[in-house]
Specification:
CATH topology: Rossmann fold
Strand content: 15-25%
Number of domains: 1
Radius of gyration: 16 Å
Helix content: 25-40%
Bound molecules: ligand FNR
Shape: globular
CATH architecture: 3-Layer(aba) Sandwich
CATH superfamily: Flavodoxin domain
Distance between the termini: 14 Å
CATH class: Alpha Beta
Order of helices and strands: EHEHEHEHEEH
Length: 190
């Protein structure tokens, strides 16, 4: 069987983002049977505008996002925490991905949430806020393991590489749980 494809979306636009670095670590330490691909299009996604949300006006970046989410077997979303919630850029991208309602790319998509913040709570509040958003999309969000990377500035080296074995093991467990959930939802091949 070919590898499951997981699209990894970072909610940060910063070049030195801890969340993007966390996704790179997930990609580099992914378990057998899972290929993680980093989504790099977030900065190009315009503000959601219902007037543009039709076949004639859909912005290219929004179409690309929807196409890539559709094509992925699952999503791995790394959210920063901004003022106890999800950054606007991430919420905006999910708003685009959530349409058309009832037939969107997020419908029945298996999703794992992780996050890194420089604070002491490791994006706990942002992850809860993200769960609330995704509950509206009929996606299937993993309940665990929880990956809450607190004091993130102490966990990556100057190249943005993660060396902490505990966090690396948690990332692998998360992708293994996502793989199990994706496969459990598929009909058995006869
Ligand atoms: C933050 N940060 C932050 N951290 C936290 O733990 N709780 C919070 O509520 C906030 N709020 C917040 C608001 C805004 C506007 C900014 C810019 C930052 C700090 C945040 O965790 C830190 O900047 C992370 O490094 C952001 O993630 P990336 O960009 O490194 O992935």
């Amino acid at each position: 069987m070919s590898d499951l494809k997981v699209l990894a979306i970072s909610g940060s636009l910063r070049g030195a983002s801890h969340n993007t670095a966390l996704l790179r670590a997930a990609r580099d330490h992914s378990p057998d049977g899972v290929t993680v691909e980093l989504y790099g299009g977030l900065a190009a996604v315009p503000h959601y505008n219902g007037d543009l949300d039709d076949d004639h006006h859909l912005p290219a970046a929004a179409l690309d996002l929807r196409t890539r989410v559709h094509a992925a077997d699952g999503l791995l979303i790394a959210t920063p925490e901004y003022n106890h919630s999800v950054p606007g850029v991430l919420k905006n991208a999910l708003d685009w991905a959530s349409r058309p309602k009832g037939a969107s790319a997020l419908e029945h998509k298996d999703i794992a949430i992780i996050g890194a913040s420089t604070g002491n709570f490791g994006t706990a509040r942002a992850q809860l806020a993200l769960r609330q958003v995704l509950a509206a999309t009929h996606s299937h969000v993993l309940t665990g393991p929880e990956v809450l990377v607190f004091t993130a500035h102490q966990r990556f080296d100057e190249t943005g590489t993660l060396h902490d074995p505990v966090t690396i093991a948690l990332l692998r467990e998360t992708l293994e749980a996502l793989r199990t959930q994706i496969l459990s939802r598929r009909a058995p091949v006869r």
